[in-house]
Design a protein that fits this description.
The chain has two domains: about 170 residues, Thiolase/Chalcone synthase (Peroxisomal Thiolase, Chain A, domain 1); about 130 residues, Thiolase/Chalcone synthase (Peroxisomal Thiolase, Chain A, domain 1). It is α/β, with parallel strands linked by helices and about 300 residues long. The chain has ten helices and 13 strands. Helix 3 packs across helix 4 and helix 7 packs parallel to helix 8. The protein binds acetyl coenzyme *A. Acetyl coenzyme *A (ACO) binds next to helix 2, helix 6, helix 7, helix 8 and strand 12.
């Protein structure tokens, strides 16, 4: 049986940090309001000349280095993004060139908004299990700061820019155990970018907590596991209150949840690989542990995946 294992992680945050106090100077808001509603203290914004593919390139180089492979061994690139450099070519093709990869393997983007990384990881896993790829680069990268409506103070304070990447490799040892993905286009008006991000925050909140705990339960049941079998929950980092409510529904203490939303804000498809890389590099995530990732995003799209590290 062929599985895909994560053999390297990497991430990148733009140099510019924007604190809540910085936002107080341009929006009618306060540090206390933002922290109490979302858990966010600061986020990073890309420089004017930095594109999504640049963030993706830095994160990818770090993941490739951590994996100890040469970039040319990568035979598939999937970039999850909702803020591509341009309409086309895909950010994945631009990234392939920036990384100097000349293997000619396929490279494409995946658009499932904040659910994008889980969708991309599951797709990469299917390529590896199906024998069509051996070494895959999966990236979540976003420059959301250019999509913010600075006249909508409830929404513009929540988002940030960043990128995270993982290298997956075919293996006989279990890595990604299983995943579940869902979409329901009836809820598309609840959260959208047209071209600026707008959302019905309270409806998103309720919907997110329900579907996230349901989809994690689905994955656990498929594998005969319970919440207590998860070593680390690595959730999409949208909002500390969504994360806490989901963990509570799953019977998990916050000591088993990786939380980076305070420093990163909501970086959409980049948030899970950013959080994964943080917890791998600081030693929390260890070989043999059960890691559960979950995310929900505009569309709506949502999903979860169980990974044996
Ligand atoms: N600063 C200060 N006050 C504010 C701000 C702000 N930035 N924004 C809104 N307010 C005020 C409002 O005007 C309102 O004042 P009023 O009572 O005098 O009318 C008050 O705060 C409450 O406004 P609500 O919109 O009801 O705020 P709520 O408590 O619902 O919090 C929030 C808004 C944070 C968006 C919340 O609904 C939420 O957490 N939603 C989840 C959505 C989310 O995290 N989405 C992430 C993207 S989706 C994804 O990744 C899946």
């Amino acid at each position: 049986m062929i599985y895909s294992r994560i053999i390297g992680t990497g991430s990148y945050l733009p140099v510019k940090t924007v604190t809540n106090h910085d936002l107080e100077k341009i929006v009618d808001t306060s540090h206390d309001w933002i922290v109490s509603r979302s858990g966010i203290s600061e986020r990073h914004f890309a420089a004017d000349d930095e594109k999504t593919s640049d963030l993706a390139m830095h994160a990818s180089r770090r993941a490739i280095e951590a994996a100890g492979i040469s970039a040319d061994e990568i035979d598939l690139i999937i970039v999850a993004t909702t803020s591509p450099d341009q309409l086309f070519p895909s950010t994945a093709c631009i990234l392939q060139d920036k990384l100097g990869i000349r293997s000619g393997g396929p490279a494409f983007d995946m658009q499932a908004v904040c659910g994008g990384f889980v969708f991309a990881l599951n797709t990469a896993d299917m390529y590896i299990r199906g024998g069509q790829a051996k070494t895959v680069l999966v990236v979540g990268a976003e420059v959301l700061s250019r999509m913010l409506d600075w006249n909508d103070r409830t929404t513009c304070v929540l988002f940030g820019d960043g990128a995270g990447a993982v290298v997956l490799r075919a293996s006989e040892q279990p890595g990604i155990i299983s995943a579940k993905l869902h979409s329901d286009g009836r809820h598309r008006e609840m959260l959208k970018a047209d071209p600026k991000i707008s959302m019905d925050g309270q409806s998103v909140f309720k919907f997110a907590v329900k579907v996230l705990s349901d989809v994690v339960d689905e994955v656990l049941k498929d594998n005969g596991l319970q919440g207590s079998d998860i070593n680390w929950l690595v959730p999409h980092q949208a909002n500390i209150r969504i994360i806490e409510a989901t963990a509570k529904k799953l019977g998990l203490g916050m000591a088993n949840v990786v939380v980076t939303v305070g420093q990163h804000g909501n970086t959409s498809a980049a948030s899970i690989p950013l959080a994964l890389d943080t917890a791998v590099r600081d030693g929390r995530i260890q070989t043999g542990q059960n890691i559960m990732i979950e995310a929900v995003g505009g569309g709506f799209t949502w999903g979860a995946a169980l990974i044996r590290w």
